[in-house]
Amino acid sequence: MKPVIAIASGIKKNKEAGIFEGELYSYITEEYVKAVEMCNGLPFIIPLQKEKEDVERLLTMADGVILPGGNDIDPAFYHEKPIPECGEIFHEVDQLYLWVIELAEKLNKPLLAICKGHQMLNVAYGGNLYQDLHVQKEFVMDHSQNIPRHLSSHEVRIKKDSFLYDIFQKKANVNSFHHQAIHKLADAFEAVATSEDGIIEAIFKKEGSWMLGIQWHPEMMAAADEKMKAIFQLFIDQCQKR
Ligand SMILES: [Mn+2]
């Protein structure tokens, strides 16, 4: 049977003028759905929830869970006030992400966390973030590419003896759509990919439940890039095992 993969929802506000202006949408981009399906997983979406126990019921039905990309994380979660460069925040989404991380650990569900998800994973275990790379870090390269999203714009070095090394070997060419990034890495994780300017672009949990964080967007590259697809296959194989 196909493993069932829960994907946490983001929220989007309709900005088009008209009677639907301001309407909110629960959403995930179709690329996550396609990436899961390409690897023979069966995806469903977890919309925003008011109660943690309801998230737990939904996660119980899944074999694994994905936290996708999205808006900036409220710096209050790592005990900072927002600087002017910090972007728009959606509290309910941040809360859902934190519950999903906590419950994935409790229920021992493999977790693949991408971009915002990757950053939240670090925050959930006591790490913190650069609220804006360009004002808070020196000698930083461009991590907000203006070329099509399925194309790579910078390189990362991969740590030996990691799952990612088995896929990519020493280096990977990745896309990049983030002005925030991991600053202090939580002790529970090891960095498994790092860009040339020292940004941690992938993390893996040292012990306990299977948790992989990826700063770039493999779902946008997976249709045309076997190695990016292999990241999803690696995760789905873990889900299948349980
Ligand atoms: Mn990057």
How would you describe what is shown here?
The two termini are about 10 Å apart. The model has no long low-confidence stretch (mean pLDDT about 95). The protein has a 9-stranded mixed β-sheet with strand order 4-1-5-6-13-12-11-8-9, sandwiched between helices. A two-stranded antiparallel ribbon has the order 2-3. It has about 240 residues and is an alpha/beta fold. It has one domain (about 5-240): Class I glutamine amidotransferase (GATase) domain (Rossmann fold, 3-Layer(aba) Sandwich). The chain is built from 8 helices and 13 strands. The protein is globular. Bound molecules: manganese (II) ion. Manganese (II) ion binds next to loops.
Q: What's the gist of this structure?
A:
With about 240 residues, this protein is α/β, with parallel strands linked by helices. It is built from 8 helices and 13 strands. Helix 2 packs across helix 3.
Key features?
single chain, 242 residues, alpha/beta, Rossmann fold, 9-stranded mixed β-sheet, two-stranded antiparallel sheet, 8 helices, 13 strands, binds manganese (II) ion
Helices and strands in order:
Elements: E1 4-8, E2 10-13, E3 24-27, H1 30-38, E4 42-46, H2 52-60, E5 64-67, H3 91-107, E6 111-114, H4 116-124, E7 129-130, H5 133-136, E8 154-158, H6 163-168, E9 171-174, E10 181-182, E11 189-195, E12 200-205, E13 211-214, H7 218-221, H8 226-241
Parallel strand pairs: 1-4, 1-5, 5-6, 6-13
Antiparallel strand pairs: 2-3, 7-10, 8-9, 8-11, 11-12, 12-13
Helix pairs in contact: 2-3, 3-4
The protein binds manganese (II) ion (MN).
